[in-house]
Amino acid sequence: MIQIKQVSKLYEGKEAIKNVTLVIQKGSIFGLLGSNGAGKTTLLKMLSGNLIQDAGEVLINGSYVFENREVKNRCFFLPDTPYFLANYSIMQMAGFYSHIYSEWNQERFYQLQEVFPIPVQNKIHKLSKGMQRQVAFWLALSTMPEVLILDEPFDGLDPVMRKNVRQLLIQDVSERDMTILLSSHNLREIEDLADHVGILHRGELVIQKDLNDLKADVHKVQIAFKHKIPHGLYRGIQILNKERRGSVIVCIVKGKESMIKSHFNQFQPEILDILPLTLEEIFIYEMGDIGYVIQNNLV
């Protein structure tokens, strides 16, 4: 279990993380979303033990992370730009990690070569960005981590390799109860993987929910009337966004589907459709609700 308790962090004189509390259960996949500069990477670095918080507690399985070799031995942090030792080949990096991580599995390292078909004698720094990302996953999964922390993990991977990596991650969660915390601006990837999500904005965790509950709590409503729009149509419900498309009104409404349907049906609409939203759409509207909105400007 990952526990972040009332954590704050000043970074270069600014409060990058503000009193964040977060619990991630063992065997779950948590997607961390947020605006640019929200503090996502800072939070991941504290969780991986690369930074120490200024206030609060960061724990994995009840133990503090910073300067704790035993905890770090069970975790692996894959940053947005993977780091490898200079001029090392894949096999040399594998040997390096085998001396650091006690659960390193050489048999699995060779098995994963079927997924990542790159000659192990190749120098990593000579590989393309996408192939270096493959090597990073190859090495990370061979350490058999209990906790895997990923920052923009799919950047540079082609669609086939993305699917292969997703399958490996899901397999490890299913078979070994591995816990994953991933941060990405590719919300489709998070939607395909995560069971819980959190939204970080200006250092504060503004939303933390089960993904299915989040998607069940925000809806797109298409409604039309034979005559004029009834008085009081929007009263008593939480509208995140609304617009007219000809005779049809499109609303983004927060609340349970049954409540929304009951509210609009009392006005006897000619058309009433309630549609699901993607995670990207939910993110845009939730962020708009706290003032982070799309600007309709052309420069």
UniProtKB/TrEMBL annotation:
Residue ranges of every copy of the ABC transporter domain listed in the record: 2-227
CDD domains per record: ABC_DR_subfamily_A
GO molecular function, one term: ATP binding
Pfam families: ABC_tran
Top-rank taxon: Bacteria
UniProt xrefs under PROSITE patterns: ABC_TRANSPORTER_2
Sorted UniProt keywords: ATP-binding, Nucleotide-binding
Coiled-coil blocks: none
Protein name: ABC transporter ATP-binding protein
Organism of this sequence: Peribacillus simplex
